[in-house]
């Protein structure tokens, strides 16, 4: 009898262990599956609902970082922004009406309009490298739209969103961030960029309503008690309880249409149902048994480490090595490639889902394989006959270890190809040498090419806009980050 009881207890313990392992496995997979959507959800809250936020503008209204001036270290709404374009950002809500986006004619520089859904999929890439430089009006239709479509729009400019909420990004290149007339010129193009619900567009004589004339309409989306705390460095700050509660909100948000024809997504939703997460379900972390909370936390932590490792480690399936720079391999199909989707969301939220627009090369270590540290000095040396091959521009921005700009005396956060073209950098012997260090170099020529480094650990996220294929596949000989011998 005693042996039977002991055997039963051993069997129950084994079953419990199997259950915990299964829950942890679901949690790890769910982290990769849902990180992009959760970041989207919280970021949308920051822009549309958090009224004391620096980026609050409501729905369907553009936010211009730093009031339309170049981005500085004060901007922490997203990780690894670029410093070579002036951004416009918005979250569109198409639940009540389609949206009309108007863009001005731009003939002398890079510009782009991009729309991204909660899955990190881009239903629209527009701009000089995609469809020319003429002024254009785009009609954005929500999922299952059955209303009339005005004849004003070319078929190529009618976008089937496939959902009812989108992030919008507008970029205008800034060739010289120190030139006030240049900044004013770009600001004028920003002012001509409008977002208008279709009904208002029709009432306004088929014309967009300028941002300055728009009323602020806050978003109306479910929140969690810790929402306001998660808008800064949200990936680092969120707990397992936060993540899974938010993921359940995502899956029950009427503005976020599921990918209903994806077998892989359907299978994931079936697995999530086992832990009480999914459409039509209410998820309450505090009501879970302690062992379930622990298993979910274990899987959440494993997912976090797995996503971080995919970009940091050059031998992962998500990146290719470009002479020590890790180039993310955006597949153009985030419907099923959850790990790449999560990595892009973590290291560069709102980065493109394909290399058609631009790609990023991440760098965490120097040429000797040591962690980049602002207490050291480095050089990056370009051969002027072998600069990064792009159709638009390239940029080498520098960040702290979490991916944010750090204040410096020059307000300089990157070195880019425009600076070279405009004669703002020193070259010698057919070389461009970038000097990366915390303190300004004593040599005036070196100071001209100085990229101020933050104190402590740091990283790069080089940008290649309009990349040639040698950048995409990593065969370009990108210069290493070489420590200076003391």
From TrEMBL:
Gene3D superfamilies, alphabetized: Domain of unknown function DUF1214, C-terminal domain (2.60.120.600), Domain of unknown function DUF1254 (2.60.40.1610)
Pfam families: DUF1214, DUF1254
Residue span(s) of domain DUF1254: 69-197
Disordered as annotated region, ranges: 1-21
Domain DUF1214, residue spans: 363-468
InterPro entries referenced in this protein's UniProt entry, alphabetically: DUF1214 (IPR010621), DUF1214_C_sf (IPR037049), DUF1254 (IPR010679), DUF1254_sf (IPR037050)
Protein name: DUF1254 domain-containing protein
Species this chain originates from: Natronorubrum aibiense
């Amino acid at each position: 009898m005693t042996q039977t009881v002991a055997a039963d207890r051993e069997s129950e313990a084994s079953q419990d262990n199997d259950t915990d392992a299964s829950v942890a496995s679901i949690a790890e997979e769910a982290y990769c599956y849902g990180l992009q959507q959760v970041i989207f959800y919280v970021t949308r809250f920051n822009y549309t609902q958090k009224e004391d936020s620096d980026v609050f503008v409501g729905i369907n209204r553009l936010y211009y970082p730093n009031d339309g001036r170049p981005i500085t270290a004060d901007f922490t709404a997203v990780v690894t922004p670029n410093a070579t374009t002036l951004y416009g950002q918005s979250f569109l809500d198409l639940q009540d009406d389609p949206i009309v986006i108007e863009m001005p004619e731009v003939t002398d520089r890079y510009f782009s309009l991009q729309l991204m859904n909660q899955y990190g999929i881009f239903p629209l890439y527009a701009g000089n490298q995609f469809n020319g430089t003429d002024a254009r009006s785009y009609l954005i239709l929500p999922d299952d739209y059955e209303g009339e479509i005005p004849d004003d729009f070319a078929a190529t400019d009618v976008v089937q969103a496939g959902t009812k909420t989108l992030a919008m990004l507008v970029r205008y290149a800034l060739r010289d961030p120190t030139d006030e007339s240049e900044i004013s010129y770009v600001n004028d193009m920003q002012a001509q960029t409008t977002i208008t619900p279709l009904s208002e567009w029709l009432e306004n004589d088929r014309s967009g309503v300028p941002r300055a004339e728009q009323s602020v309409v806050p978003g109306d989306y479910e929140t969690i008690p810790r929402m306001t705390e998660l808008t800064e460095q949200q990936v680092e700050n969120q707990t397992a309880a936060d993540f899974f509660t938010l993921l359940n909100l995502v899956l029950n948000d009427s503005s976020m249409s599921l990918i209903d024809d994806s077998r892989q997504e359907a299978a994931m939703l079936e697995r999530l149902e086992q832990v009480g997460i999914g459409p039509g379900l209410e998820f309450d972390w505090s009501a879970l048994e302690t062992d379930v909370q622990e298993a979910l936390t274990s899987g959440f932590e494993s997912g976090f480490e797995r996503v971080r490792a995919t970009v940091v480690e050059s031998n992962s399936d998500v990146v290719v090595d470009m002479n020590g720079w890790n180039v993310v391999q955006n597949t153009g199909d985030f419907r099923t490639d959850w790990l790449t989707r999560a990595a892009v969301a973590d290291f560069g939220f709102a980065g493109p889902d394909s290399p058609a627009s631009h790609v990023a090369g991440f760098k965490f270590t120097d040429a000797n394989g040591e962690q980049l540290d602002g207490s050291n000095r480095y050089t990056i040396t370009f051969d002027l006959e072998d600069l990064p091959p792009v159709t638009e521009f390239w940029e080498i921005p520098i960040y702290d270890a979490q991916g944010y700009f750090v204040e410096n005396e020059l307000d300089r956060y990157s070195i880019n190809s425009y600076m070279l073209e405009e004669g703002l950098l020193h070259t010698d012997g057919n070389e461009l040498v970038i000097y990366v260090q915390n303190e300004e170099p004593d040599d005036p020529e070196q100071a001209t090419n100085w990229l101020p480094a933050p104190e402590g650990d740091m990283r790069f996220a080089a940008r290649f806009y309009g990349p040639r294929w040698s950048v995409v596949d990593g065969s370009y000989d990108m210069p290493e980050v070489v420590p200076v011998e003391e």
